[in-house]
């Protein structure tokens, strides 16, 4: 159970260490996904009991975190990540207080705690950290991480966290790595009584305190570390249920500002069941049906906070006819929260599959032409500066920054790679590959799967298992090379020779559909080459349905013109 402790009492504790308030967060804190300390790899993160008191007028946070770990290898101290901007007021191991410097310390945002004994595998330990301070503030969330302190149109505080790029340690003591996922996260958020604090997972209850505050309690399982969020504002809750095709009932919740026009709220709310229907029919069961499908309006654009997705798109409906942001963030409940990258080098699995759901949803709603229009738009945004996968551990910053990693190619190029794979192996095999990757089994049903970690190599192995084909050439060309495969075309009389050239010089026997004089045929391109008969003057159209992602002179000319214009 979550402690009933209200953090008003935590503020009165005599600090064990009178640490000076740091002006800036350390580089260690301002990145996520760096290598775990050996002590972090030696434990399983069982539970995080997190009590927060948010003080809007001072932009302060008081935190009281009890973390439970089980050793998987011999270990004599714990290591957790927490922004050193905070003043640590109390540290305990199994209820016994520790002394600063002797029993615990901080190394630029990485805290170590002496357990006082060596844990054997299977033994558990409980650490408590009480802290307070002014958390790192985001300058342009969600593109940079931190707290967002705004004022709602009605004048009340409107607060959110957005920490995907920088990590969970910006406001709670965690293992700031994708594989630092706690099996259970219970939160108690104390806020001014006029405000609401929707959170991750199931609503456990709330308590009206004697000091003009209210404590909101939530309980969630298997939460991605950056998916833990704090949301505070003058919200109105919209509640409903979705009856799933799998026989279960999914709670739907939307917390919107009380000043929002109801017709706009109604219109967005009507999209919830449509999107759930699409994802469940296309991918499989909603992964957190025992908790909720939740959305909260935020003063930043959005982020995939597990079961409480941040939404700040202002109810915009563009030419797609629906709210793309809601649709994209919901995708991450499957691709990000259910299937979590084991390392940031595999982020293309999150963003590529999530982004591919957008044109597929367009097809679900409007047909093939709508899907092709979306895919065509994606193609002009592919940069090809860095491979989608480097083959080595990466931090979030390294993969998302255009100067060091694939950046937006994680979205658009990766989505087009998924489309090319689907066109190559067919719908039946493609969706079985996706389901096994997401759920760890081909027959997911409510209650028979748990959130899991995935890697690129695992996705490749699943593809081979499902299709019975070695498609390493496909993944090598699209994931591990920056340049796209090129298709060369030469004519000798009435014969036209086509030849693939892949980055790195590897094989690329991608079959091609070719239309000659209005008649279509498929070339197997064995060995990367193929020959077609084409009478003089006959119009030749390569890949008429745009099934294959490849280098395009048209796209290259456009991108060059954009660079010149810029």
Please tell me about this protein's structure.
The chain contains 12 helices and 27 strands. Mean pLDDT is 94; it is low at 1-22. By secondary structure, it is α+β, with helices and mostly antiparallel strands. The strands form 7 sheets. Strands 5-4-8-2-1-11-13-12 form an 8-stranded mixed sheet. A 5-stranded mixed sheet has the order 15-16-17-19-18, covered by helices on one side. A 3-stranded antiparallel sheet has the order 3-7-6, with no helix packed on it. The protein has 3 domains: 1-233, Immunoglobulin-like, CATH 2.60.40.1730; 340-479, Neutral Protease Domain 2 (Neutral Protease, domain 2); 486-548, Immunoglobulin-like (Sandwich), CATH 2.60.40. A hairpin with a 5-residue loop joins strand 18 and strand 19.
Structural class: alpha+beta
Tally of helical segments: 12
Q: Let me know the largest β-sheet.
A: 8 strands, mixed
Low-confidence stretches: 1-22
Tell me, what is the CATH class of the largest domain?
Mainly Beta
Structurally, how many domains make up the residues?
3
**CATH architecture assignment name of the largest domain:** Sandwich
The name CATH uses for the topology of the largest domain is Immunoglobulin-like
Strand adjacency order, main sheet:
5-4-8-2-1-11-13-12
Q: If you average the pLDDT, what whole number results?
A: 94
Topology:
Layout: H1 7-10, H2 38-41, E1 43-55, E2 60-71, E3 75-81, E4 87-93, E5 96-97, E6 104-106, E7 110-119, E8 124-133, E9 146-151, E10 157-162, E11 184-192, E12 202-208, E13 213-221, E14 231-232, E15 235-243, E16 249-257, H3 262-282, E17 293-297, E18 302-303, E19 309-311, H4 324-331, E20 339-341, H5 347-366, H6 368-379, H7 396-400, H8 412-425, H9 427-439, E21 452-454, H10 456-467, H11 472-479, E22 486-492, E23 495-501, E24 512-516, E25 519-523, E26 529-533, E27 540-542, H12 553-565
Parallel strand pairs: 1-11, 16-17, 17-19, 20-21
Antiparallel strand pairs: 1-2, 2-8, 3-7, 4-5, 4-8, 6-7, 9-10, 10-14, 11-13, 12-13, 15-16, 18-19, 22-23, 23-26, 24-25, 24-27
Helix pairs in contact: 4-5, 5-6, 5-8, 8-9, 9-10
């Amino acid at each position: 159970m979550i402690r009933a402790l209200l953090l008003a009492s935590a503020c009165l504790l005599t600090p064990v260490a009178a640490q000076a308030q740091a002006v800036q967060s350390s580089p260690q804190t301002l990145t996520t996904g760096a290598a775990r300390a050996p002590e972090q790899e030696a434990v399983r993160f069982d539970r995080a009991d997190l009590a927060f008191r948010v003080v809007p007028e001072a932009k302060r946070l008081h935190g009281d975190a009890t973390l439970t770990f089980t050793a998987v290898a011999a270990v004599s101290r714990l290591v957790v990540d927490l922004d050193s901007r905070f003043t640590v007021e109390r540290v305990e191991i199994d209820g016994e207080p520790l002394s600063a410097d002797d029993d615990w310390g901080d190394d630029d945002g990485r805290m170590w705690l002496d357990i006082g004994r060596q844990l054997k595998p299977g033994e558990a330990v409980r650490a408590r950290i009480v802290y307070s301070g002014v958390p790192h503030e985001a300058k342009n969330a969600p593109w940079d991480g931190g707290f967002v302190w705004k004022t709602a149109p009605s004048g009340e505080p409107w607060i959110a966290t957005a920490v995907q790029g920088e990590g969970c340690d910006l406001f709670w003591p965690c293992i700031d790595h994708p594989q630092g996922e706690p099996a259970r996260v219970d939160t108690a958020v104390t806020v001014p009584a006029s405000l609401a604090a929707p959170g991750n997972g199931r609503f456990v209850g709330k308590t009206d305190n004697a000091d003009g505050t209210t404590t909101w309690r939530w309980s969630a399982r298997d939460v991605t570390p950056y998916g833990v969020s704090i949301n505070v504002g003058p919200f109105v809750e919209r509640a409903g249920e979705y009856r799933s095709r799998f026989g279960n009932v999914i709670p739907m919740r939307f917390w919107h500002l009380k000043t929002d026009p109801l017709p706009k709220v109604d219109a967005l709310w009507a999209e919830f069941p449509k999107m759930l229907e699409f994802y469940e029919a296309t991918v499989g069961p909603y992964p957190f049906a025992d908790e909720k499908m939740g959305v909260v309006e935020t003063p930043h654009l959005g982020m995939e906070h597990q079961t409480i997705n941040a939404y700040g798109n202002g109810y915009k409906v563009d030419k797609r006819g629906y709210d793309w942001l809601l649709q994209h963030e919901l995708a991450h409940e499957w691709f990000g929260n259910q299937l979590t990258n084991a390392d940031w080098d595999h982020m293309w699995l999150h963003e590529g599959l999530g982004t591919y759901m957008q044109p597929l949803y367009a097809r679900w709603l409007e047909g093939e032409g709508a899907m092709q229009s979306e895919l065509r738009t994606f193609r002009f945004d592919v940069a090809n500066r860095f491979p989608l996968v480097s083959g080595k551990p990466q931090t979030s910053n390294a993969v998302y920054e255009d100067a060091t990693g694939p950046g937006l190619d994680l979205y658009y190029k990766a989505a087009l790679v998924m489309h090319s794979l689907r066109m190559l192996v067919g719908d039946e095999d493609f969706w079985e590959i996706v389901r096994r990757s997401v759920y760890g089994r081909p027959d997911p049903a409510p209650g028979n799967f748990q959130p899991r970690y995935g890697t690129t190599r695992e996705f490749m192995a699943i593809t081979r298992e499902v299709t019975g084909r070695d498609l390493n050439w496909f993944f090598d060309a699209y994931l591990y090379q920056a340049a796209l495969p090129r298709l060369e075309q030469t004519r000798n009389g009435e014969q036209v020779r086509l030849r693939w050239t892949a980055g790195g010089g590897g094989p690329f026997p991608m079959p091609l559909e070719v239309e000659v004089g209005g008649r279509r045929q498929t070339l197997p391109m064995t060995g990367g080459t193929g020959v077609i008969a084409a009478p003089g003057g006959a119009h030749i159209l390569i890949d008429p349905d745009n099934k294959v992602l490849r280098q395009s002179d048209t796209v290259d000319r456009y991108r060059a013109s954009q660079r010149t214009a810029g």
